[in-house]
């Protein structure tokens, strides 16, 4: 896809994500109607469903032939083929349920399994982080790059799990890094690596919609994405991921490569 067509899609994606996120903030005082999905900690609210529907409707107006993979309403098992948008309407739903303003809208565009556009919007802070293939990554229209810190001891590392696996990860990392944080939103935590806000994000068994947008953002910001063994991976290899700058990923992988994923993460 040439850049003129890609740019058109990028601008629409930015507008759609921003509109969706701002609508969440406008209605933030409304009661959350909470249900569970795969387990008692996997929440969905009426906001997730309504925002997803609005995103799809708005994109279809411009690109009626495109396809969608999304977290809610049974749209999570479709094959990535042709022009496909991958949507997480509210990444960080548990935070949202508790009114903790750490959640975002994540929107990615793929052409035949290749990520071409990634947009992550943090509405509480009005931060729009986005990228287009071979055209760099940006934060509110300012170009961004990953952190240039070279020492693990100076690095802020975030984790994408808060249960038993996190305890094992922290046990091998806590005295090697400057600080560890768990924020509860995969898309934002990965995008923060692209913005240079942290040096690495370690994720556990993500779904494609959790990281589809941020994968491209980190790549376009000069970052590297590997598995826990330090091998570079594509966006669909989501079991054990490290999003990082090009300096510390090898040391991180050496520390965590033997950590096993515990049941319940």
Account of the 3D structure:
The strands form three sheets. Strands 3-4-5-6-7-8-9 form a seven-stranded mixed β-sheet, with helices on both faces. It has a five-stranded mixed β-sheet with strand order 11-10-12-14-13, sandwiched between helices. Strands 1-2 form a two-stranded antiparallel ribbon. It has helices spanning 3-26, 46-62, 93-97, 164-173, 186-194, 208-220, 249-256; strands spanning 34-36, 43-45, 67-70, 83-91, 104-111, 114-122, 127-132, 137-139, 142-144, 156-159, 179-181, 200-204, 224-226, 240-244. The protein folds into two domains: 3-144, Fructose-1,6-Bisphosphatase, subunit A, domain 1 (Fructose-1,6-Bisphosphatase, Chain A, domain 1, 2-Layer Sandwich); 152-256, 3-Layer(aba) Sandwich (D-Maltodextrin-Binding Protein, domain 2). The chain has 265 residues and is α+β, with helices and mostly antiparallel strands. Helices cover 32% and strands 26% of the residues. The model has no long low-confidence stretch (mean pLDDT 91). It has seven helices and 14 strands.
